[in-house]
């Protein structure tokens, strides 16, 4: 094992000792109480089985027959989640074939950041994750389940589902993906048309036609954003079938994988030591971070992984991410980090290649438990149909397309895809996997904006044709829910393409599809908490030095002390579109490095 990976793991274990102890004691108590249905009264059970068929009722009345809860994030306005419409029937039918039953325990919200991007609804996006966690727990609270399967793909949904599942960690758990849509228009053509629209060269109707050629069917969007990073993480943590995440939706192989996942949760129910809490530990999260760095995954997971780990009593911080990134080579180039997408990634061997290479380099814990056994070796396979039967073959340890997946010997970069930045402005992260060498050092005057709309208006007035660092403040979790600022990138990318040196500094987030413009994001402390970002003024010189991990405001300490609490803090008080319902969340949410969550450490609860 790599020494740094071992050191980070041991630091996490030591740091988490008290919280982890409380969590595991809670799980053990639930385990000792035994099968929930056996402890229920007849009236409770009658309510449980009332809507079931006679054959299902007969099965469920047998207290030894497993009953599997299905938590679904289905709706038919998310392309990735529309296929879930039919999954409960497929799952239930397979369960009955195997002398078991299944029930939809509950549905959870599933919003599409692609729809709300740049709009008011995006202010609810990050908050929806903790809401999903609570919704998952509410569904499972009926306590009539012996295991559970989770149907979710997209940005906040998988993290929320896993957080809720971990709160019921005494149950075995399997996550089931829906798969990506086929590839549409090339990502380079799409980016070009977006820039032409920003310049006014094409109208909205023409841009819509282009976008509809990109997002054209059901299934996950094909770029390597947060949704597909979620799928990668679930495999790195051993919670999804091996190398099955990127099999296209609505295909025979996809359906057989869903059936196999159903059989797998039954297998876990029927053997000891493979509940969710038995599988997930500190090593699981280290493996997940390694996977994030090796694939150039979404910067959103510097928030989500911390929040997910917190529920399991595990404390992560950005120093862990940074240390792991420094020793993990970048093995993948999927859009926005390259020109190819997840379908090309799958065809090159997919996660089987990535995990095989990481094991070879000693960068992951290979002795972890997974839903299919012990060891990540089991994930170095590829699912196929042979005579209509699902098989897993071990023929994907070497990439079949080095334009999208490389090797430990020939990585795209010797370091991973994310980096920690520190300095007198605060702590932040930057996605480096899509940046060019000349973008790793930028020193330029600040232009300060309180909103992303302010930057767009400045561009429309022709004020941004120069070198500058856009400081977009008051975008943190306490201010307005930390919406993604992805809508700024066509403008900033256009200015960058004209030869100007530009960057973004913000206490907000960027989309998982971002990365081509240097962006110091998730800055803590955020402006509304009195963070230094609120004291930056126009024309202050900001230095972004990615290689050395520095983000500094080149003003004297004396000058900065004078400015403290002098600038007005802009807080979004607009209550429209349901935002007033989340006032209590904004007031109680933690900062980005603490997971931007309302859930506290178990120590704090005591």
TrEMBL record:
First-tier enzyme category under EC: lyase
The Dihydroxy-acid/6-phosphogluconate dehydratase N-terminal domain, residue ranges: 66-377
Homology family: Belongs to the IlvD/Edd family.
Entries under PROSITE patterns matching the protein: ILVD_EDD_1, ILVD_EDD_2
Keyword 4Fe-4S in annotation: yes
Highest rank taxon of the organism: Bacteria
Residue ranges annotated for the Dihydroxy-acid/6-phosphogluconate dehydratase C-terminal domain, each copy included: 403-596
UniProt record, GO biological process: D-gluconate metabolic process; Entner-Doudoroff pathway through 6-phosphogluconate
Name this protein carries in UniProt: Phosphogluconate dehydratase
Species assigned in the record: Poseidonibacter ostreae
E.C. number(s) listed in UniProt: 4.2.1.12
UniProt KW keywords: 4Fe-4S, Carbohydrate metabolism, Gluconate utilization, Iron, Iron-sulfur, Lyase, Metal-binding
GO CC annotations, alphabetized: cytosol
One MF annotation (Gene Ontology) recorded for this entry: 4 iron, 4 sulfur cluster binding
Pfam families, sorted: ILV_EDD_C, ILVD_EDD_N
């Amino acid at each position: 094992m790599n020494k740094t990976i071992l050191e980070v793991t041991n630091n996490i274990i030591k740091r988490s000792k008290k919280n982890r102890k409380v969590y595991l004691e809670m799980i053990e108590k639930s385990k000792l109480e035994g099968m929930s249905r056996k402890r229920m009264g007849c009236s409770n059970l009658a309510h449980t089985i009332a809507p079931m068929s006679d054959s299902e009722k007969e099965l469920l009345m047998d207290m030894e027959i497993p009953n599997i809860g299905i938590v679904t994030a289905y709706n038919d306005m998310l392309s990735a989640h529309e296929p879930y419409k039919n999954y409960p029937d497929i799952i239930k039918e397979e369960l009955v074939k195997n002398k078991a039953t299944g029930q939809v325990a509950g549905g959870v919200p599933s919003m599409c950041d692609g729809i709300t991007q740049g709009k008011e609804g995006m202010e609810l996006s990050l908050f929806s994750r903790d809401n999903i966690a609570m919704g998952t727990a509410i569904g499972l609270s009926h306590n009539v389940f012996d295991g559970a399967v989770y149907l979710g793909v997209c940005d906040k949904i998988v993290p929320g589902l896993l957080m809720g599942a971990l709160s019921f960690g005494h149950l075995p758990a399997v996550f089931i993906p829906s798969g990506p849509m086929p590839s549409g228009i090339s990502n380079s053509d799409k980016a070009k048309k977006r820039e032409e629209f920003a310049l006014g060269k094409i109208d909205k109707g023409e841009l819509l036609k282009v976008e509809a050629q990109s997002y054209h069917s059901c299934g996950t969007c094909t770029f390597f954003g947060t949704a597909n990073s979620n799928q990668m993480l679930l495999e790195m943590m051993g919670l999804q079938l091996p190398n099955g995440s990127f099999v296209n939706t609505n295909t025979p192989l996809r359906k057989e994988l869903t059936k196999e996942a159903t059989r797998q949760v039954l297998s876990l129910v029927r053997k000891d030591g493979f509940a969710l809490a038995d599988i997930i530990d500190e090593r699981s999260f280290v493996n997940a971070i390694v996977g994030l760095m090796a694939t150039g995954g979404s910067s959103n997971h510097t928030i989500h992984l911390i929040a997910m780990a917190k529920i399991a009593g595990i404390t992560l911080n950005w120093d862990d991410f940074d240390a792991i990134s420094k020793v993990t080579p970048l093995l993948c180039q999927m859009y926005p980090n390259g020109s190819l997408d997840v379908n090309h990634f799958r065809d090159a061997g997919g996660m089987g290649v990535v995990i095989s290479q990481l094991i070879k380099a000693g960068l992951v814990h290979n002795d972890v438990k997974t839903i299919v056994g012990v060891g990540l070796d089991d994930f170095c396979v590829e699912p196929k149909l042979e005579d209509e039967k699902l098989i897993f073959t071990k023929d994907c340890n070497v990439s079949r397309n080095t334009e999208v997946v490389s090797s430990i010997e020939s990585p795209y970069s010797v370091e991973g895809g994310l980096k920690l930045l520190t300095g007198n402005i605060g702590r932040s992260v930057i996605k480096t996997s899509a940046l060019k060498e000349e973008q790793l050092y930028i020193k330029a005057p600040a232009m300060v904006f309180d909103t992303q709309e302010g930057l767009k208006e400045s561009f429309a007035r022709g004020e941004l044709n120069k070198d500058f660092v856009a400081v977009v403040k008051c975008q943190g979790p306490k201010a307005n829910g930390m919406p993604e600022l992805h809508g700024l990138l066509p403008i900033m990318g256009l200015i960058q393409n004209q030869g100007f040196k530009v960057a973004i500094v913000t206490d907000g987030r960027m989309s998982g599809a971002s990365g081509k413009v240097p962006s110091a994001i998730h800055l803590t402390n955020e402006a509304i908490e009195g963070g230094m970002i609120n004291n930056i003024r126009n024309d202050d010189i900001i230095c972004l030095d990615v290689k050395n991990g520095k983000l500094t405001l080149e003003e004297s300490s004396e000058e900065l002390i004078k400015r403290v609490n002098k600038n007005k803090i802009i807080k979004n008080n607009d209550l429209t579109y349901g935002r007033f319902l989340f006032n209590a969340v904004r007031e109680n949410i933690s900062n980005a490095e603490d997971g931007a969550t309302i859930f506290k450490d178990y120590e704090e609860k005591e």
